[in-house]
Amino acid sequence: MVDKTILVTGGAGYVGSHACKALAQAGYVPVTYDNLFRGHRELVKWGPLEVGDICDPARLKDVIARHKPVATMHFAAMALVGESVSQPDVYHRVNVEGTSTLLAIMRGAGVDKIVVSGTCAVYGMPKTTPITEDTPIAPISPYGETKLGMERRVSAADVSSVVLRYFNAAGADPDAETGEWHEPETHLIPNVLNAATKGETLRLFGDDYPTPDGTCIRDYIHVCDIAAAHVAALAYMDKAPGAHVFNLGTGTGNSVREVIETARRVTGKDIRAVVEKRREGDPAVLVANSSRVQSALGWTPRRSLEDQVRDAWRWTQKNG
Ligand code: UDP
Questions:
Q1: Whole-prediction pTM value?
Q2: Which tens digit of pLDDT belongs to each residue from 36-52?
Q3: Could you give all domains of the chain from N- to C-terminal order, each with its CATH number?
Q4: For residue 188, how far is its CA from the centre of ligand 1 (angstroms)?
């Protein structure tokens, strides 16, 4: 057993809660720090919950002093692109200033390692695919800008860090102990599965993209593969101190129509979709080149799109 405490900010959220389970299975004690604004108390199952805000230095200081974590995993952030356009100041305060607050308190307490939830949104509308870490950075929304700001504060800080820029997180814990629970829900796979359970019609945003079937292509990656990469990143910082940034995807792209077909197969349900106009800011293709993270962390994605849809379906059926 490792028996070391990790502070998990945003541990009551989607990726954060899966990371907590993966940490516990690897012998760590995950202490969730979450303000429960969009996180859920019910998803904190693998360690204590400390309710607190990432922008509250006194509370953070108290929690770190009591639990004495050896490292932090940082998921606490605002993550809705549309909302970031209408509330850019809130996104800056939480995503950028909140990260600075966390780093300052960590340093004051001698915590010198952090794994950070990053995003491919920092690449904006890339001109080439697949996307490597050398693809130009050009976010097109306040969300992408503030996640880039978060990365920069982390890389400039006097700590070791691994930022994982993930592509499309999807799926759920195979035991259905945690899963995707967003309010509002904007993501494709849960919306497809809601269409399957509730008989609603999926709104398909655009079928006139320059792709084989005209719908957008994304690199969907199972949330448990993402969680495993976070755990591997902790050990990596011991042998490779300093600041690291990696893409995290599978390298395989699937179109919106392929996702719908996979969901029809997995659920056995008829899923209706109606084509609407393009959603603003959606690039045609986003697929990761993740060779750097694979060779650095010795991590590899193990679960297919079918696994993602099947596990998300189990979670939806349990909670729908
Ligand atoms: N999408 C869709 N209908 C939905 C939600 C998403 O057609 O209800 C499309 C969206 O336009 C994009 C893809 O599905 O091409 C993935 O979108 P999602 O919001 O899941 O992730 P994003 O790539 O925006 O981070």
A1: 0.98
A2: 999 999 999 999 999 99
A3: 5-170+221-249 (3.40.50.720)
A4: 5
